[in-house]
Write a structure and sequence with these properties.
Blueprint: E1 4-7, E2 10-13, E3 16-17, H1 18-25, E4 29-33, H2 34-47, E5 53-58, H3 65-72, E6 77-80, H4 83-91, E7 99-101, H5 108-117, E8 121-124, H6 127-140, E9 144-151, E10 173-174, H7 178-187, E11 191-197, H8 208-226, E12 233-235, H9 254-265, E13 271-274, H10 278-281, E14 285-296, E15 301-305, H11 314-318, E16 324-326, E17 337-342, E18 351-358, E19 366-369, E20 391-395, E21 398-403, H12 408-412
Parallel strand pairs: 4-20, 5-6, 5-13, 6-7, 7-8, 8-9, 9-10, 9-11, 11-12, 12-13, 15-17
Antiparallel strand pairs: 1-2, 2-3, 4-14, 14-15, 14-19, 16-19, 17-18, 20-21
The chain binds pyridoxal-5'-phosphate.
Pyridoxal-5'-phosphate is lined by residues 58, 60-61, 79, 102, 199, 202-203, 237-239, 275-279, 374.
Length: 421
């Protein structure tokens, strides 16, 4: 459920007409609904209310300070994957004890910064990384809390680019070698083992892969405890999928997911951490764009938008489907015609949809991409020297620009000319 609905023939973001934001901000832009993202966070929080837990928002999905502050005010923790994300989380007021640090290649500088600023745990992804964390922590005279990310070798049944839990993926250590690696961790100075971490992929639309992975984590917890390790936390990653189309069957609900966690792991008495990103922000965001031209090609019609692959790369990168709807609601009797919906970037890959059935639209009309909140603005670039797309946050009848569109001068002045040129 989201808060983007038609009222009197106009698409609204909560209580604000999307067209009103477009008039104020210009297109293209991202708009997020506070109510939707707060609602999604609370669904996860409630789904785990049967035990001690922390929902750590995977901020790589959308990391604007205003979004982080909205979630932090709800009590959310953060899952960060870089020094930049750590700095963003801290700048948004998230205390270190609510930040977990994931990612396959943490540098010494990132580890040091997190230990200086405070960190709940590092999710260690390899033995060399574990040794670096040990060295840095020891040199600083502190102890780094760690979990070790295990790769359970399960098929997440999702797009290949976002599956992370098969043995051929670069993530974590093979679960079969976990005992050995935990033994080394226990022997290294400057580390305190606090738990186990697992994350098998993104946009999972079934619970079975989670179940397979979590049953393996349950077994491993018992084995590691028998080896003498104190396993008090289980970080179960993110990955629950969202509906991108109206028609396909609905992915599992956070409540079902929470019940699955309770059933597979609840008996172990651990504190549970989860790292949802997409489900919290995905359906809480739209990308709004204007039709520049309607072009009749050889046997096909093109809708040419002012948004492009640099603003929303998911269709080009993951073959992703986004619903694209008119901001002015189509007449009930409107005839739908197939269109290729494209951006102006000089690449054939700059295609959002092929043969998409659309109501009549013309130059100047606005359209909205649904489910664009996650992995949208954060993956945007200035390819073709198109300024970074701005972001807007709505709350009730208020809206505010939370990242402004740079001017051409802003863009150009980021470059510097060497003195000798
Ligand atoms: C990307 C990622 C997540 C979030 O995945 P979603 O599909 O957005 O929920 C969580 N944890 C880790 C380690 C990740 O890399």
């Amino acid at each position: 459920m989201d808060h983007f609905v038609y009222r009197d023939g106009q698409l609204y973001a909560e209580d604000v007409p999307v067209a009103e934001i477009a008039a104020a901000v210009g297109t293209p832009f991202y708009v997020y609904s506070s109510a939707t993202l707060v609602r999604h966070y609370r669904l996860f929080d409630e789904a785990l209310s049967w035990g001690p837990h922390l929902v750590c928002y995977a901020m790589k999905a959308a990391s604007n300070q205003a979004i982080l502050r909205t979630l932090a005010a709800e009590g959310a923790g953060m899952d960060v994957v870089s020094g930049g994300e750590y700095a963003r989380a801290r700048a948004a007021g998230v205390p270190g004890e609510r930040i977990v640090f994931s990612g396959v290649g943490k540098t010494r500088a990132e580890v040091r910064a997190a230990l200086e600023g405070g960190i709940r745990q590092f999710n260690v992804e390899s033995e060399p990384e574990m040794r670096v964390i040990s060295e840095v922590a020891s040199a600083m005279g502190v102890v780094a809390p760690i979990t070790i990310r295990v790769n359970p070798d399960v098929d997440a049944r999702t797009h290949a680019k976002i599956a992370t839990g098969k043995s051929e993926n670069k993530f974590g250590i093979p679960i079969a070698r976990a005992r050995e690696v935990y033994a080394e961790a226990a022997a290294l100075p400057g580390l305190k083992v606090v738990g186990i971490d697992v994350h098998i992929g993104s946009q999972l639309t079934q619970l079975e892969p989670f179940e397979q992975a979590y049953l393996k984590v349950a077994d491993l917890t018992e084995v590691l405890r028998a080896d003498g390790h104190e396993i008090t936390r289980l970080d179960l990653g993110g990955g629950l999928g969202i509906p991108y189309t109206r028609s396909n069957e609905a992915p599992p609900l956070p409540s079902d997911y929470g019940a699955l966690i309770q059933r597979t792991l609840g008996h172990l008495g651990c504190e549970v951490e989860i790292e949802p990103g997409r489900l919290i922000i995905g359906n809480a965001g739209l990308l709004v764009s204007e039709v520049i031209y309607l072009k009749h090609g050889e046997g096909r019609d093109f809708l040419i938008l002012d948004a492009a692959m640099n603003d929303l790369i998911r269709p080009a990168m993951y073959d992703a489907h986004h619903e694209i709807v008119p901001v002015k609601e189509a007449e009930a009797a409107a005839e739908l015609h197939p269109h290729d919906i494209v951006g102006p970037v000089c690449e054939t890959g700059d295609t959002f949809a092929k043969g998409r059935l659309m109501p009549p639209l013309d130059s100047g009309d606005l359209v909205a991409f649904r489910s664009a909140g996650a992995y949208g603005a954060v993956m945007a670039s200035e390819y073709n020297s198109r300024p970074l797309v701005p972001e807007v946050l709505v709350k009730g009848d208020q809206f505010a620009v939370i990242r402004a569109r740079p001017s051409f001068d802003d863009m150009i002045n980021r470059d510097t000319i060497p003195e000798w040129l």
